[in-house]
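REQUEST ID: PR-0412
SUBMITTED BY: lab tech R.K.
PRIORITY: routine
TASK: structure prediction, single protein chain
INPUT:
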Amino acid sequence: MSDRVFDVQAVRQRFSSLQSGFVFLDAPGGTQVPDEVGNAIARALREASGNLGAPYATSRAVGAILTKAKEDAGTLLGCSPDEIVFGANMTSLNFDLTRSAGRDFAPGDEILVTRLDHDGGVAPWVELAEDRGLTVQFVEARDDLTVDTDDLERKLGERTRVVAFAWASNATGSLADAERICRLARSAGAVSWIDAVHCAAHESIDVRTLDCDVLLCSPYKFCGPHLGIAYIRRELAETWRPYKARPSASSPIGRRFETGTHPYELLAGFSATVEYLDSIGGMQAIRSYERSLGERFLANLPESIELYGPRTMDGRVPTFLFNVEGVGAGEAARRLGERGLGVWSAGNWYCVGLAELLPEESLRVGFIHYNTPEEVDRLVAELDRLFRTTPVAARA
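STATUS: complete
OUTPUT:
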């Protein structure tokens, strides 16, 4: 499909949830799921409910599901299947992995995070710092709400152990210069630790090209089930001692950091998600189409909209944070919902370090590959309508 026009209507036919006419513009909070993914999950529950190690068919079935899911995740991220770790979700997995990574950190060691980061990528380090006497420093944001990489370079020091950052902000949609940040971390002898949860829905990922040490993502942002996925560079993983039950498998290397029984049905759903994405052209086709939606939105924004973050599609994914002049964000979200458009309002959007640079409350929309140009136009028209139909005296 990548060499022809992206057929969004054919894509939408694969989602029962998109047939009601409601406009889902809330992809940053979680995407809709194609029927084939749900079917794969249900089939695994019907036909492969068991666990590894037993001498019969259902055990072999879940083993095959796990093997395929590892292979699919390795292909998705550009690494060996052995370097993949599965967990309940990104945040839980991140808490687990930071504990293993930090076993040999010493009081006074430093962790760098950025103001654009989701707290799922910050709180694990804050808590570890509290336990171990470490220091967590924020890398500042530029005026356009992008990561100030020069500030990061200034703050790197001999005690920096980890540089953790969100590749794409779940609030503003802005992209960090991941390759440069990873280079800076490596030159300082620090580990690069990427939260790619929001990025993975919109951009291709190759951890070898990035030359990163750790990267996490979650399929619920790209039309799959709730699941945490991590890549850990093999050479680094071999130096960590995991927290886990002692009899459980520790080979190959990624298995060291997986605790408890896998959610095999969700792993089956993840593999079905990868197959679905491949069938519609893969990330190359998806990225091109989504950028066209973002460009359409930015080109037609009414003057009444105050946008926070980059004002072009350069350096961003199609996630937008804004307010309607004179209309409270909560009220705007409620009224848009009544008109059949799913838009969220919130305060810090879990970007705690960014809160002081944002208004008290804002609106967020995020386009994904199943959204249409007509839905973008409808949103723009409804935003303009919100402004025009709100009496001056009632505007916030």
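NOTES: DSSP finds 13 helices and 13 strands in the chain.
REVIEWED BY: pending
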